[in-house]
Amino acid sequence: MALDFGFGFIAGVTGTIAGYPFDTVKVRLQTQTLHHRLYSGSLDCFIKIAKQESILGFYKGMSSPMFGVAVINGIVFSIQNLSKGLFDNPDTYLALVITGGIAGGVQAFICSPIELVKTRLQMQGIGQQRKLFTLSTHLYKGPIDCLKKSYTRQGFRYGIMRGLSVTLARDLPSFAAYFPAWQFFVSHFSPTGKEGDMSMHMSLIGGAFTGMAAWTVSYPFDVVKSRYQAARDHVYKNVWDCIIQSYRNEGWQVFTRGFLPCTLRAIPTNAFTYPVYAFLKRKFDTPFDDDNISIPTTVVTKSKSISTNGNSSSSIASIQSI
Length: 322
Description:
It is found in: Mitochondrion membrane. The structure is a single chain. The chain is mainly α. It has a single domain, classed as Mitochondrial carrier fold (Alpha/alpha barrel), CATH 1.50.40. Helices cover 70% and strands 0% of the residues. The protein has helices at 2-31, 42-53, 63-83, 93-122, 130-135, 143-160, 164-189, 200-230, 239-250, 259-284, 306-319.
């Protein structure tokens, strides 16, 4: 279990680095308003960040979600595996929906402050050249400073945990959709109906498919979360006020803003996360007897192979907005 946690950490860091630029573009598009519109679309946002802020502009605030991926993945798999005991047959779609939702709800308490820090750091120095950004004084010096100032201004509940309710509203359906979508893909595209027998390229396609399915059902909540966490403390009274103001001022389209870079992020994230995890697993891990394997296997059809568990771990990293 300790080795899997370490492998998942390294693979999660790699996947985060690969997909993080898309996340920065997503957050920038989600948080801009009609009255202060800096980007006309995803491509325009990519070009302007590259020109104005250099390649490093895409990676603002990355340290917080990068090191949080391992903790979140560990929580999700542990809780989801524990929840299987509630069902006589944990591999049914209904069981996967419920256990995934439980796991997503628990991890949201860790994910919410991590994404608060990420979002606020991503919004610093928009359009500012890298040299000027380095020389300028910004509100937050880094992740720890952001947490400290958030706590000083509004305390733990309304400062550090700001946006927890909408993070729960996003992650409950997201994880509830993810596990059934993955099993659906495996059952239809694996030659034997087992994840371990799928080719590498099909596993990567499956990861992208399931990540997109999870985002599709939860994306509007992610938009609200980004806008609420990025806004100054006095802009919105609460999450519901954020929803009402966003809809009144910009229409329903505001809740789909940034969806393209969000879904595109699933492709490089999975393309890097799984191969790194599988390589480390083959290179350094020792084989286990079937009876000793305890890592969750709910997203497959009762397959207990080492490669099966590797696929499961990689898939979770792709759904996170961190």
